[in-house]
Design brief:
Elements lengths: L2 E7 L3 H12 L5 E3 L13 E2 L9 E2 H15 L2 E3 L3 E5 L5 E5 L3 E9 L3 E3 L5 H5 L5 E2 L2 H4 L7 E5 L3 H10 L5 E5 L9 H9 L3 E4 L2 E7 L6 E6 L5 E4 L3 E4 L3 E3 L29 E3 L11 H20 L6
Parallel strand pairs: 1-2, 1-8, 2-5, 8-19, 10-17, 11-12, 11-17, 12-13
Antiparallel strand pairs: 3-4, 6-7, 7-8, 9-18, 14-15, 15-16
Bound molecules: NADP nicotinamide-adenine-dinucleotide phosphate.
Length: 309
């Protein structure tokens, strides 16, 4: 089996940018697309904060453009998902459902998945009032009434961001105290646009073709409250897609890959970029930047290999 220079795992902004840089450095990168080609941006609508598009661009269109650019620079795309890795021997081995690759370096950019409640209405009304990303979709809810679900820093941050646009927010949390940091809680508690519903669980999101309202269960009194809203933001956290790497790669308590110097993992030659190693910023543009850094780091690593295994 020939040995590749770099195998990139994931096809969101981090993976595709890494691919473009690696291909232009003549590393002939292989990019394994993963289960959601294009990543999280493919489930958003208008992206107004990615530089270069004066009127914004639809998320799926942006990802298609990045993919085409990566193809044009020479990235070799492999459909499918990585099911196993072996970082214990060099060259490293990457296993997809039906192929194996030996490679000198790996860039992990498998992203993170939004956690969902699992309600029918979530999938049915996704993009029609249901969202998992306030930064992406907030401006579409100008002067609307909405619900945010969650009690951690994400829910606080998303609620505070959404107050810039919406008329009213019902913040639904399942317990009687927040998990979020005190400073974030204080800001939320002080905001006149936010009404907090503690001990509350979303039971249903309804609407024909667009969100019209929600049913909220008070788990102390067992009463159900019907609230008319036009938007529902689920902010109960993200799960980084790191399960298959954890045998070899150090992660934090929430499963995010630990990196030093931006993209370096505990295994020299294995780099991480994007949401998979970023619990804080989680933006397309910051992921793309990290993808660029990871590809340059991989290139320098390969240059330093002696002998070139
Ligand atoms: P998190 O801290 O895990 O909080 C998730 C919240 O969602 C919790 O309040 C949890 O309720 C609730 N939740 C989880 N599953 C649920 C379900 N099935 N139904 C209803 N509620 C559910 O996640 P996060 O807020 O995304 O934060 C993740 C990490 O990133 C944290 O370390 C956080 O500090 C950090 N972060 C920091 C910032 C910032 O500093 N600006 C911003 C965002 C995130 P319970 O409390 O009852 O478990």
């Amino acid at each position: 089996m020939d040995i590749k220079n770099v195998v990139i795992l994931g096809s969101g902004p981090a993976g595709l940018t890494a691919g473009i840089y690696a291909a232009r450095s003549d590393l002939k990168p292989i990019l394994v697309s993963g289960s959601t080609p294009g990543g999280q941006l493919t489930i958003t609508s208008l992206v107004e904060n990615y530089p270069g598009f004066e009127n914004g661009i639809l998320g799926p269109e942006l990802m298609l453009k990045m993919q085409k650019q990566a193809e044009n620079t020479g990235v070799i795309f492999e459909d499918g998902t990585v099911v196993k890795v072996d970082f214990s021997n060099r060259p490293f081995t990457i296993f997809t459902e039906d192929k194996q690759f030996k490679t000198r370096t790996v860039i992990i950019s498998t992203g993170a998945s939004v956690k969902w409640l699992g309600l029918d209405g979530e999938t049915r009304l996704m993009g029609k009032g249901v969202s998992g990303c306030a930064t992406c979709d907030g401006p579409f809810f100008k002067d609307k009434d909405i619900v945010v679900v969650g009690g951690g820093d994400s829910a606080m941050e998303e609620s505070l961001f959404l107050t810039k646009f919406v008329k009213k927010i019902y913040l639904v949390h399942r317990r009687d105290e927040f998990r979020a940091s005190k400073i974030m809680q204080d800001r939320v508690l002080k905001d006149p646009k936010i009404e907090i519903l503690f001990n509350s669980e979303l039971q249903d999101i309804y609407g024909e073709n667009i969100v019209e309202g929600v049913k909220v269960l008070n788990n102390k009194t067992n009463s159900i409250n019907d609230i008319k809203v036009q938007g529902v933001f689920i902010a109960i956290g993200h799960t980084p897609n790191t399960e298959i790497f954890r045998e070899f790669i150090d992660t934090d308590n929430n499963g995010y890959i630990k990196v030093h110097e931006f993209t370096k993992t505990n295994v020299p030659g294995v780099f991480a970029a994007g949401d998979v190693s970023d619990p804080k910023y989680k933006q397309a543009i910051s992921s793309a930047g990290l993808g660029c850094i990871a590809a340059m780091d991989a290139m320098h690593f390969i240059e330093g290999l002696n002998p070139k295994v």
